[in-house]
Amino acid sequence: MAFFSLAVVCSALSWSAFAQTTVTPANRTSNAGEVEFMRGVGFAQTPGQTPRTLGKGLPLQEGDRLTTADGATAVVKLQDGTRMTVRPGSEMVLSQFKFSQDAQDNSMVINMLRGGLRAITGLIAKGSPNAARIQTNTATIGIRGTDFDARICSVDCGNEGRRIAQNAKPNAIQASAKVLSSRGEVLAVDGAGQRRRLVDGGGLYPGDVVETGQGTQAVLAFRDESRVTVGATTRFRIDNFVFDSKNAGEGRMLTSILKGTVRALSGLIGKANNKNVSYSTSTATIGIRGTEVLIRCVGVCAGEGGGQGDGLTVFTYSGQVDVTKLTDFTSSFVLTPGRGLSVTPAGTQEFGAEPPNDLTAPGSLPLPASLFGSDNVNENQEGLYVFVRDGHIELTTNSSVLHLGRNEAGLAGNDGSTVRPQDVPRFLEFDRTPLPNSTNFNVAALLGDSNITGGRVCR
């Protein structure tokens, strides 16, 4: 019987399953976006005007209030490329939408009153870290180039979660590190060459290169409590990071300083097994043993022309550092606190005075428990739930802030608290409402209504 039902659903590809209102180009005016798909009953209302029935092609204006009935879903595409699936039983207002390809003050503000959405943000959120946000009665979602879900929950979400047979998966933090503090514009370049703006709380992953400009620096906190200050005009890459708090000795932290200056403080991995932590340059590899160390790589060390201060400089504040020259693996130097090493084209020389630098001591900044911690929260708790598929979300209430990265879920409770549940709520992980970039949206919606998920879909 289940096979027959799936076959019937797949046949829906060849017919228009649901009545949709179509707006011809001649009827369109200057707008913030339009409805791409509508299933069920919904309305858009501009203040002071008569409600308009949601339907494919319907233009949407700044200030429109969107509502969907129970069982109804709408897909909306805004002018900057943002796409949203408005969930059943939802109400939200497009309070502000300003977008121009050449403008510097683009902005998007959505007031979410009930229900929720599944969204893939566009150019506004990617252009500025503070330009796009969603507001509710209790919290604000700051959006940074993100693919995410947001849902206001009362008892309905908990009831929905209890009807799901699958087990919840751990709400594990996948980021190797997060930005603890930054000054100026800090960028990250991933392994595919895609650039993104980093802000405080933003996550970093293996393969990411952190780039800073003149007068800029950032302090990074790793999951094992290591901290690294990245100085101005620096390129710092996370090559590999593996950490399990229950077995820190098996962890690994391998990084590269491609150019510039860093000041690093080792964490639990280095304290448990110092052989598994290293900072590499094109000139030498620096192994640390419970250490705070300054490393500067300029000129030929960074693959550039020579100049003042050319080469590699290493200085130890605490612990012990092993420096091994890549051109001669028999040339290994051990530096104790207060000792430094200079490796230049002219030769290698030890010294005993701290080099001048303006880098923040990474150990001087506290490590908030909320940066990587989680809380025992059940699905029955009411509030605003957020799940991030990609990107970075800042969940803010009057009393706290929670930063969420890739594959992380968070909750802003009605009491103003923000928490990261130990498990991803099942009503988020197994949400049957189709994503806004789903192909064959009618079929995806029918499959969701029939509780057909996973591999049992039309290809």
Report on this structure.
The chain has 459 residues and is mostly beta strands. Helix content is 9%, strand content 42%. The chain has six helices and 31 strands. The protein has helices at residues 2-10, 123-127, 155-162, 268-272, 426-429, 441-449, and strands spanning 33-39, 42-45, 52-53, 59-60, 65-68, 73-78, 83-86, 91-98, 107-114, 116-120, 132-135, 140-153, 177-183, 186-189, 195-198, 203-204, 209-212, 217-222, 227-230, 235-242, 252-265, 277-280, 284-298, 311-325, 332-335, 340-344, 347-351, 383-396, 401-404, 408-413, 418-419. The chain has a 16-stranded mixed sheet that branches. The chain has a 15-stranded mixed sheet that branches. The longest helix has 9 residues, at 2-10. The chain starts with a helix and ends in a 10-residue tail after the last helix.
What topology emerges from the helices and strands here?
Elements: H1 2-10, E1 33-39, E2 42-45, E3 52-53, E4 59-60, E5 65-68, E6 73-78, E7 83-86, E8 91-98, E9 107-114, E10 116-120, H2 123-127, E11 132-135, E12 140-153, H3 155-162, E13 177-183, E14 186-189, E15 195-198, E16 203-204, E17 209-212, E18 217-222, E19 227-230, E20 235-242, E21 252-265, H4 268-272, E22 277-280, E23 284-298, E24 311-325, E25 332-335, E26 340-344, E27 347-351, E28 383-396, E29 401-404, E30 408-413, E31 418-419, H5 426-429, H6 441-449
Parallel strand pairs: 9-11, 21-22
Antiparallel strand pairs: 1-4, 1-6, 2-3, 2-5, 5-8, 6-7, 7-10, 8-9, 10-12, 11-12, 12-28, 13-16, 13-18, 14-15, 14-17, 17-20, 18-19, 19-21, 20-21, 21-23, 22-23, 23-24, 24-25, 24-26, 26-27, 28-29, 28-30, 30-31
